Structure formats: structure tokens, C-alpha cells
Amino acid sequence: MSACRACSDPLVLQLDPEESDGDTATVPDDLLLPCGCHFHWQCMLDQSPQIASTLSCPSCHSRLASSAPGSSSAGASLQQQAGAILARYTNEGGTEDGLDILPTVTEEAYLAAHPAARPARAMHVMCAEGDSAGIVELLRDVDENAEAEEGGVDAGSLLRYQDPLNGMRSGLHVAVENGQEGVMWLFLWLGSTLPTSSFPAAALQTAQSIGLQRGVVGPGREDVRLLRDSQGRTAADIGSQLGGQWRRFWESGLLTA
User: Fold this and answer.
1) Nearest to 106 by CA among 95, 117, 119
2) CB under 8 Å to 72, separation ≥6 — which residues?
3) How many other β-carbons are positioned within 10 Å of the β-carbon of residue 170?
4) Model's pTM, two decimal places?
5) Which CATH architecture has domain 114-252?
6) pLDDT, average across residues 117-134
7) Do 225 and 257 meet the contact criterion of CB atoms below 8 Å apart?
8) Boundaries of every domain in the chain
9) What is the pLDDT of residues 181-237, one digit of tens each?
């Protein structure tokens, strides 16, 4: 049986006794790279900074990436030039061929270099899913940690975080793109100068029930509606391209600072 080229252990994961009805059991965990080297999934993630910077196998140093057609133009990013790293991954759910691991490698490498971005990216997932309660809990946790650790990221910075791995979108961009109205009102409450009288009763009730005060907007705390993605679009610009209530929000000026 092949072993992981990073740790030399068999390409399996040990299950806890509780997960295996009291008996020691294993499940496969085998990532086969294009060069033929095998890794555990986590061992590959641990090597992400090296893989992302060199696009080569950390063990045999063979090139891993398949170039995308027309991606070698000047100014194209390393990931755009690389195209994809197609691997085969076998775990307890079966085998997946042609799995592009480059986006995951790029993200893990970025987070290794910018650990403060990890909660922000987690928040953007919540924005897409409409998890307002999770966002509030995360913002409170971040503020508590910022007080305990000098120089830590606070809730205001997190609200205005723009993701370089997702076209510099803010959480408000993500919420509007995914049709999450509740998250939109949350961001406007905490990060904009929109008059309180412009909020619907349900949004005000929700804010009051969980004890949320209006956010501070000013120097270093830009109105979230002013943030632009890498295409120069505000959340209002995205709303203007959508139909239904989102176009009405745009027409009424709620998303425009």
C-alpha cells in the first residue's frame, strides 16, 4: 500500500471507537496528485503555501498544474495561468476523479499568510447562507478577542472585509448576490448611515431583540454601501441587475450611500 509522502503513514484515517461501534477502524484518505505522489488530505493542506507558490509537488517537485487556454497573458494571476491541479481523492464516500484542488490550495495558502482573514471568510459563507445569527455571534466573539489581544481584528473591520479570493467582494456584496435580505439589513444596521426610520419593523425588532446597537461609521469606518469589488461595483450595482425586491431596494436608494 502507498504511504503519504509527507508523513509516511498509511493513507487511512483512524476512527474514534465511538464512531466505529467500539472497534478500531479506518477509512481511506488518499489524495493522488498528477505526478503520482500520494498524500493525506490534511498533509496536502499543510503544504499549501509551497504548492501555491511553485505549482509543483512538495515531494518530487514535478509540475502539477495544467495551464488554462489563453491564460498566459501578461498580468494574469498565478492561479489564472495555472488553470487547475486535477487530482484523484479517495475517502469514505468513494473516489472522485478530476478534482481541482488548486482553489483549495490557494485559499489555504492565503489563510496561512493572513490568519486574521479566516473569520472573515467564514463570515462570508454565512452571508451567502443567510445565517444572521451566526454572523452576530462571530462579530461579538471577534470584538471580545480584539479587546484581549492588542491589534486584533474587530467587528467593524470584519464587516468591511473585502475578499481578494472572491473579487474583493464585501459581506454586503455576497448577501445581495445570494438574495439574503436579512443579512443585508444586518449589514446596513451595523455598518451604514441609513436612517433608522428606513428599516422595516421586522429588522428593527430583530436588532432590538438581540441587543444590537447601530454601528459606528466615520474615519476608518466607511459606510459598507460604498465598498467596491474588483469590478468597481457596489452592492447597489449588483442589486440594480437583479429583479424583484432587490431592484426596488436599489431604486429606493436603500443600498446607496
Assistant:
1) 117
2) 81
3) 27
4) 0.73
5) Alpha Horseshoe (1.25)
6) 94
7) yes
8) 12-110, 114-252
9) 999 999 999 999 999 999 999 999 988 888 888 887 877 789 999 999 999 999 999
Phi, psi for residue 100 in degrees, rounded to 5: -80, 110
Cβ 97 vs Cβ 34: under 8 Å: no
Alpha helices for the chain (secondary structure H) = 41-46, 48-54, 78-82, 102-113, 117-129, 132-148, 155-159, 171-177, 181-191, 201-209, 235-240, 244-252
Cell of 256: 446607496
**Other residues' Cβ atoms within 10 Å of the Cβ of residue 138:** 18
Q: Distance between CA atoms of 8 and 33, rounded to whole angstroms?
A: 16
Cell 494574469 belongs to which residue?
A: 76
Is residue 35 within 8 Å of residue 1, measured between CB atoms?
A: no
Q: Which three cell numbers stand for residue 204?
A: 428593527
What CA–CA distance (Å, rounded) separates 64 from 52? 10
Spatial contact of 187 and 255, defined as CB atoms under 8 Å apart: no
Amino acid letter at 245? Q
